[in-house]
Amino acid sequence: MTYGLFLIGLFMVLMVVGVPIAFSLALSAIITVVTTGNFTVTAIIHRMIGNSSSYTLLAIPFFILAAKLMNTGGITRRIFRAASAWVGHIPGGLGHANVVASVIFSGMSGSAVADAGGLGQVEVEAMRKDGFDDDFSAAVTCASATIGPIIPPSIPAVVYGMMTEVSVGALFIGGIIPGLLLAVACSVLVYYMSVKRKYPVRQFSWKEVVASTADAFLSLLTPVIIIGGIWTGIFSPTEAAAMATCYAFFLAVIVYHEMSLKEVAQAIAETVRDSAGILLIICGAAAFSWLVTMLGLTETFSNALTSLTDNKYIMLLILNIAFLIIGMFMEALAVMTITIPFLIPLMGSFGIDPVHLGIVLILNLMIGLSTPPVGTSLFVCAKVADISIERMYKAILPFLIPLIFVLFLITYVPSLVTWLPNMMLK
Predict the structure, then answer these.
(1) What is the DSSP letter of 58?
(2) Which residues does 205 contact at the CB level (< 8 Å), separation at least 6?
């Protein structure tokens, strides 16, 4: 137990002094191993390499590249134009289009930051031209980006599935209903705030609906291909990621002619950089979480929680509060890879469905991306809208209400998560 506390304490010290999280995780594990003398550094390295070489993780660079190709190749612009034609006449106008476009883009990329930074540029600029203030536009974009990793595909779901040996396909499909609930909840708030502030609406035009839908038709097929392929068993989630990338390349380069091969090469280079950063975190967290388990911290933690309560719903409340707080300060994938070893014993002790817990955990951490003080999506959207981070903090606060409402709704109504995968993947 003493060495376990030393490990946790050392990790926190390294984080406080500004060491990147991937290196904080790895260094604290290696130093603890050397200090204890009970394990070898070779065992740590083997664990790091073993986790990073998982076939499932191949989906991550493919989904990242697919999102970059869509953002640069005109796909996201066409999606937003179609969404604007469909719902721009409803009070809230392009605010609703923002949410609808995020739902569609969620079915292609699996990344909240890709949604906020790529699609967000198109959304904020269009809303600005229509008379929406920048603070509101940025807040809607940030909140709707939360949907990205909930509706399939989802990069966090890939990592969770790999670490818990839960079906990634079940996690993907389990996120559909919660993602749609998030969209409805955000749209209700957009409607209320838009009516109160008298934001403009667009005139409905069948001509614009037909033209924009036809222009975006091939782009709109992307989520159908991904989800339909997984559902029918034509390809696995990892293969679906590769298919999404190939299809995005086909549209951006061959059909729309909006990307040159030089731009494709740049997107690949950026994907390598981003994927390497994610894999470094996974490697460091693999070493850290393995050592946490070997030192008995997971068992101690599980026993401590079970001594507090034997009620599953109270335990879920405790986990929600804990992850909402942790998600404010730490990167989502790092939190997942560190905490999952602690959660696995709890699933068995309390009879919590692993797919249900996975979606609840992911939504908690995605809300963290939109929560002060260090939410990544907040900084991305503030930059896109060219507003100060202080204004962004204030603007996002009302939108945390529908996000947290849906979080607790799916927490205490598990069938909202589990019903669809149980039905579709029998």
Answers:
(1) G
(2) 85
Residues 421 and 173 sit within 8 Å (Cβ to Cβ): yes
From the list 118, 67, 103, 78, the residue with the least C-alpha distance to 381 is 118
Interior/surface letters 13-39, b for 16+ CB within 10 angstroms, e for the rest: ebbeeebebbebbbbbbbebbeeeeeb
For residue 176, the enclosing domain spans: 2-424
Mean pLDDT of 105-114: 75
End-to-end CA gap in the chain: 43
Show the tokens assigned to 357.
């817990």
Q: State how far the Cα of 337 lies from the Cα of 235, in Å rounded to an integer.
A: 26
The tokens of 395 are what?
A: 């603007």
Residue 76: closest CA among 20, 12, 31, 123: 123
Average pLDDT over residues 106-111: 73
pLDDT exceeds cutoff 70 at 8:
yes
Residue 225 CB-density burial (10 A; 0-12 exposed, 13-18 middle, 19+ buried): middle
Q: CA distances (Å), 10 to each of 3, 15, 28, 153, in order?
A: 10, 9, 6, 35
CA distance 350 to 315: 8
Other beta carbons less than 10 A from residue 313's beta carbon: 11
- Token output for 4: 């376990």
Q: How many residues does the chain have?
A: 426
- Taking each helix axis as running N to C, give the angle between helix 176-197 and helix 134-145, from 0 to 180 degrees, rounded to the nearest 10: 170
CA angle 402, 384, 61 (to 5 degrees): 85
Report the C-alpha gap between 63 and 76 in whole angstroms.
15
Report helix, strand and coil shares of the chain as percent, to nearest 5. Answer: 80, 0, 20
Q: Cα(195)–Cα(188) distance, rounded to whole angstroms?
A: 11
Helix axis angle for 155-164 and 237-249, nearest 10°, is 160
The encoded tokens of residue 181 equal: 């609930």
Tokens of 150: 């909930």
Cα(344)–Cα(341) distance, rounded to whole angstroms? 6
Say what angle helices 41-52 and 261-294 make with each other, to 10 degrees: 140
CB 403 within 8 A of CB 185: yes
The pLDDT tens digits for 123-178 are 888 899 888 999 999 999 999 999 988 998 888 998 899 888 899 989 999 999 99
Show the tokens assigned to 31. 């130093």
The structural domain count of the chain equals 1
CA distances for 342 relative to 123, 273, 276, 290, 363, angstroms: 39, 30, 26, 11, 18
